[in-house]
Amino acid sequence: MSRANAIDVKRLVERLRASRGFQHKTDIAGVVASLASRLPRGTDDLAQAVGVGDACAAIRDGDGYLLFAIEGMVTDFVAAMPWFAGYSSVMVNVSDIYAMGGRPLAVVDALWSDGIDSADQVLAGMAAASVAYRVPVVGGHTNTRSATSQLAVSIVGRAQALLSSFHARPGDRLLMAVDLRGRFEDPHPFWNASVGSPAERLRADLELLPSLAEDGLCDAAKDISMAGTLGTALMLLECSKVGARIDLDAIPRPDGVDFERWLSAFPSYGFLLSVREANVEQVVARFAARSLACAEIGIVDVSHEVVLHQRDESALLWDFRDGAFIGAGTVALARDLAS
């Protein structure tokens, strides 16, 4: 794992804020606000065991939680890489469940295509991921008479102890855990460390997440998404109404990969965890035992600001007091600041 070359941190912030991954996530705030405005209790009606903004909805069920999530694949991705889009539609849902300390039970899909031949590779990819992760596809909705291809997959899982984006605390260490044994699916931002890897290893690597939750070593996490490492950090920190100072040099990265591209990567196995300082050594050791990179990349604080730094240079990535990133926790933050 190499060290990042010196970069202009302020220019990096400008490019990140203008990136497609960030723009897609900031759209969430408008969607949530529109829906909440039509509900009797606003955003409170959208929350269950956790608020809106986590990787999954979590509903209390007996002595645990029932987890629900859904992922839609962007149209150009489905058109350009139908097999990998199908594979990813299952894989990212599985990651959502594990990111919240759960284990997946089953998925269903909604697929539109112009004929069955257009759907064939999408379905083949879904089947391959279903087998690799041992998560059955148990039904769905299909329209093979559509002018355009669209794909969404939903998942259900169960957790005994939750990992949540709403549980980060000031003083926590922000850890990044990622599988560096992969490659980019050019020209896309997808870091693929899943296809072709031993299925048993994939499943055992993911099992680390619920085991950390159940052993009381961590209660706050989020899987790294299309917003990349830093956009995902913003989502986690916003939900918890905290800030952080993130060291760019500390971010694990593969050798020979452009660092800025890596920051925006969507890895097949990548998680951010907010961990109490006393537990950091044990958490890092568990990932290292499975040859997964895991490093402390920042410290959570009370500032409501996310600051990036590299050596002597720093820049403000986001100030939640000035505006939402995805809107999760920001309404409550505004109430707190006004009171």
Report on the structure:
- This protein has 339 residues and is α+β, with helices and mostly antiparallel strands.
- The protein folds into two domains: 9-34 and 164-338, Alpha-Beta Complex (Phosphoribosyl-aminoimidazole Synthetase, Chain A, domain 2), CATH 3.90.650; 56-159, 2-Layer Sandwich (60s Ribosomal Protein L30, Chain: A).
- It has helices at 9-17, 20-36, 75-80, 82-99, 116-133, 199-214, 228-239, 259-263, 280-288, 330-338, and strands at 57-61, 64-73, 102-114, 137-143, 145-159, 173-178, 183-184, 190-192, 220-223, 243-247, 266-267, 270-275, 293-301, 305-310, 313-319.
- It is globular and about 55 Å long.
Q: Using the CA coordinates, give the radius of gyration.
A: 19 Å
Quick one: how many beta strands?
Answer: 15
CATH topology of the largest domain: Phosphoribosyl-aminoimidazole Synthetase, Chain A, domain 2
- How large is the count of helical segments? 10
Order of helices and strands: HHEEHHEHEEEEEHEHEHEEHEEEH
CATH homologous superfamily assignment of the largest domain: PurM-like C-terminal domain
Strand order of the largest sheet: 9-12-6-13-10-14-15
Count of domains:
2
CATH architecture of the largest domain: Alpha-Beta Complex
Distance between the termini: 46 Å
| Inertia-based shape | globular
Can you identify the CATH class of the largest domain?
Answer: Alpha Beta
Output mean pLDDT: 92
The unreliable regions are 330-339
Question: Percent helix among the residues?
Answer: 25-40%
Major sheet characteristics: 7 strands, mixed
Helix vs. strand class: alpha+beta
Beta-strand level of the residues, as a percent range? Answer: 25-35%
